[in-house]
Amino acid sequence: MGTTWRIRLAPPPGFDREAAHRAIEARLEDILAQMSHWRADSLLGRFNRANAGTWFTLPADFAAVVAAALAVAERSAGAFDPAIGALVDIWGHGPVAIERPPTVEEVERARAASGFMRLVYEPGTRQLRQPGGLRLDLSGIAKGYAVDALAALLAAMDCHHALVEIGGELVGRGLRPDGDPWWVDLETPTQDVAPLRLALHQLAVATSGDYVRGFHTIDPRSGMPVEHAMAVSVVHPSAMIADAWATAFGVLSPASVRALASVECLCVRLVCRCGSGVSEWISPALAAMIEAENGGSA
After folding, report:
1. pTM higher than 0.70, yes or no?
2. Helix extents (H) in 3-84
3. Are the CB atoms for 97 and 89 separated by under 8 Å?
4. What residue numbers does the annotated binding site cover?
5. Residues 212-229 pLDDT 10s
6. Contact assessment for residue 140 and residue 207, using Cβ atoms and an 8 Å cutoff
7. What gap in Å lies between CA 212 and CA 149, rounded to an integer?
8. Cα angle at 247 between 244 and 251, to 5 degrees?
9. Residues annotated as binding site for Mg(2+)?
10. Domains recognised in the chain with CATH numbers
């Protein structure tokens, strides 16, 4: 995934850290072998190279991510789209470096080959059909899934108190050793906006934006990079769902984010450019969560 993982935990008595470390690395390797956009031999890579009409029976991990990705794609009207690997690649955000930005014609060709509406997925049999020339890119959701997977792995090892992080996506389970919740600061890339700290108690947070890697988020609808969203954080019980929605909200206009986040009752903090300034918006659901936290600590 081109990033690092980190776990802080309050382990139970007799917890075998070395065995846990081996299990974590094996779990991550399994997820990468299925869904890595950078590995030609991954299942995703084989799907992307397959002939039109080829059906793939997906493993449980891959199937869970595809089902969630298609659901968010539908609910966001395509602002999140797991089937824009061709667009991601021509802008140089994939495994192959580019020497120049794509032309308008190249963008249009990549758009024509892309789009989740071209996919056929049968949940009952976990089968996914390659329509021909389509390239999946699950980088906007798979990292969140991996965070959830590691939290579940620790729970299966009887470790129910941990903070799991992969590349800035986090999930908190249980409590810290001192009895406090796992406190995290939402990523705030500008001094024009006050920092915001939340308690990740049985919650996850994912952030999308351009303040680290530049304008790397591609609008699936236009095929062009997005330039207004500095940072969009989504808080949700699932890091996978938070990851996908953060990607979608990083594409949508501020007005559309406000409308959709409110309808979906999602906890969202948006920091975006507005003219020559910067604005912050906190969704009603997140405002209610912050108010509850402040009331509980009063």
Report:
1. yes
2. 17-35, 43-49, 60-75
3. no
4. 140, 243, 247
5. 554 468 899 999 988 777
6. no
7. 25
8. 140
9. 140, 243, 247
10. 168-297 (3.10.520.10)
